[in-house]
Amino acid sequence: MLTSPVGILGDDKGWVRAIRCLQMELGEPDDSGRRRPVPIEGSEFDIPCHAVIEAIGTRANPLLTQTTPDLKLNKWGYIEIDENGMTSKPGVFAGGDIVRGGATVILAMGDGKTAAAAIDRYLKAK
Ligand SMILES: Cc1cc2nc3c(=O)[nH]c(=O)nc-3n(C[C@H](O)[C@H](O)[C@H](O)COP(=O)(O)OP(=O)(O)OC[C@H]3O[C@@H](n4cnc5c(N)ncnc54)[C@H](O)[C@@H]3O)c2cc1C
């Protein structure tokens, strides 16, 4: 927690040998009330390692969207929905990260509830 990677160190043969990190602390609250992390000067330390796997940023699994070409997607490749969570395919609903991009559990749960109510209305109207 409160650690920021600042560099990947290699040996003289070109192999990775460590990640250099910097310790952070929470600063004063900004206008939004959030305390932003600020670096602690001179707090660099190294974590020895033989491999580095970058796992930052997320994208939707493309399998579903690629195999269902009549699902309308936005410019980022996420599924477009209307205010009820219905996609461009009538009777097919979506929500959560596949619609929003990387978001939060609570937003995905809210989308699920919205879609459940809309599915109920959709089916009863038929
Ligand atoms: C590293 C990381 C940390 C996070 N930390 C937090 C956090 O602290 N708090 C928070 O609120 N959110 C956090 N999130 C975000 C949160 O995990 C997501 O917003 C949330 O899981 C989205 O829920 P979802 O149901 O939309 O998608 P997912 O949870 O991704 O569920 C989609 C499911 O569909 C399945 N699937 C995909 N394709 C197919 C297919 N073709 N057929 C059948 N099944 C399929 C997948 O296997 C998966 O189980 C984090 C995300 C990551 C990656």
Helix residue percentage? 10-25%
What does the average pLDDT come to?
Answer: 93
Q: What sort of overall outline do the alpha carbons produce when their principal axes are compared? A: elongated
What small-molecule ligands were found? flavin-adenine dinucleotide
Features of the shown structure:
126 residues, alpha+beta, binds flavin-adenine dinucleotide
Secondary-structure topology with pairs:
Elements lengths: L2 E8 L5 E14 L5 E5 L5 E4 L13 H6 L29 H4 L4 H21 L1
Antiparallel strand pairs: 1-2, 2-3, 2-4
Flavin-adenine dinucleotide binds next to helix 1, helix 2 and helix 3.
Report on the structure:
With 126 residues, this protein is α+β, with helices and mostly antiparallel strands. 25% of the residues lie in helices and 25% in strands. It contains three helices and four strands; from the N terminus they run ββββααα. Strands 1, 2, 3 and 4 form a four-stranded antiparallel beta sheet that branches. A hairpin with a 5-residue loop joins strand 2 and strand 3. The protein is elongated and about 70 Å long. It starts with a strand and ends with a helix.
Gist?
By secondary structure, the chain is α+β, with helices and mostly antiparallel strands. Helices cover 25% and strands 25% of the residues.
